[in-house]
């Protein structure tokens, strides 16, 4: 009898009769996270150090400018001994003062102001000067006027004359009754202008100046007769108006 040969079937690895299973790919087993660059600490430190150095240089420059200005001011003071100009009201006369029942004021004031420059080597350069007069007790406006601009030479006295007037100025009723009853009118005078300084060949930039004069007593006119001129020689206070950005000092 012929011998029978038994051929065994190959066994599959998955036991289901399908194709053999292979190990999973590496890309399926491990996925690399997306790259996210981290900020460098060295860049932060370098930026901070740059800002600190810039701030330090700005402070040093400001200190240097302040020192230079202080030195220059000291030299100018030693060489020129500058002093502020002085102003005084040498004469004031009310030639007209009428107050209506509705509170309208019509007035005319003849005003004389004396300006003195006490410096020996300093010249003042004035722009046109605006003038305003008001009642000292009530604050009622009594007129406006102006002086022309002028050059105030060293050790010089300049006499300025103008007429300060108003027509139809409205005032408070209580102020009106006070102006009617009083035979004498206490007044305040305010001057406002810009002035520069000339020292040799050096000229400064013009800055604001206000002059406030008080203690002025004038006699109110009676009828058509003008009042006599008063000579109070009232001193005035001079203030500088320095503007820094949005502030005025």
Q: What profile does the largest beta sheet have? A: 11 strands, antiparallel
What CATH architecture label of the largest domain applies? Sandwich
The DSSP helix count reads 3
Distance between the termini: 135 Å
* CATH fold descriptor of the largest domain: Immunoglobulin-like
Total number of domains: 2
Work out the helicity level.
10-25%
CATH class of the largest domain: Mainly Beta
Task: Describe, in short, the structure shown.
This protein has 249 residues and is an alpha+beta fold.
Entry keywords:
2 domains; 249 residues; single chain; 21% helix; eleven-stranded antiparallel beta sheet
Write the layout of secondary structure elements.
Elements: H1 26-29, H2 41-80, E1 86-99, E2 104-116, E3 123-126, E4 129-135, E5 141-147, E6 151-152, E7 157-170, H3 173-181, E8 184-199, E9 202-203, E10 207-219, E11 234-241, E12 243-244, E13 247-248
Antiparallel strand pairs: 1-2, 1-11, 2-7, 3-6, 3-8, 4-5, 4-8, 8-9, 8-10, 10-11, 12-13
């Amino acid at each position: 009898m012929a011998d029978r040969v038994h051929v065994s079937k190959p066994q599959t690895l998955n036991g289901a009769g399908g194709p053999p299973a292979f190990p999973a790919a590496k890309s399926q087993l491990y996925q690399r996270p997306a790259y996210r660059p981290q900020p460098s600490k060295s860049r932060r430190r370098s930026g901070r150090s740059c800002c600190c150095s810039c701030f330090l240089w700005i402070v040093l420059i400001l200190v240097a400018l302040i020192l230079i200005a202080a030195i220059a001011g000291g030299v100018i003071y030693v060489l020129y001994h500058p002093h502020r100009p002085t102003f005084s009201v040498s004469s004031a006369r009310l030639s007209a003062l009428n107050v209506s029942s509705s509170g309208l004021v019509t007035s005319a004031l003849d005003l004389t102001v004396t300006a003195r420059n006490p410096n020996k080597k300093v010249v003042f350069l004035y722009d046109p000067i605006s003038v305003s007069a008001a009642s000292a007790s009530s604050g009622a406006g009594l007129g406006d006027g102006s002086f022309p601009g002028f050059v105030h030479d060293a050790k010089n006295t300049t006499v300025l004359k103008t007429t300060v007037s108003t027509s139809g100025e409205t005032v408070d009723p209580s102020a009106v009754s006070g102006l009617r009853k009083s035979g004498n009118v206490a007044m305040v005078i305010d001057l406002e202008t810009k002035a520069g300084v000339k020292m040799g060949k050096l000229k400064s930039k013009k800055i604001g100046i206000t002059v406030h004069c008080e203690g002025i007593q004038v006699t109110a006119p009676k009828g058509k007769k003008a009042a006599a001129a008063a000579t109070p020689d009232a001193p005035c206070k001079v203030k500088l108006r320095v503007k820094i950005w949005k502030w005025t000092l």
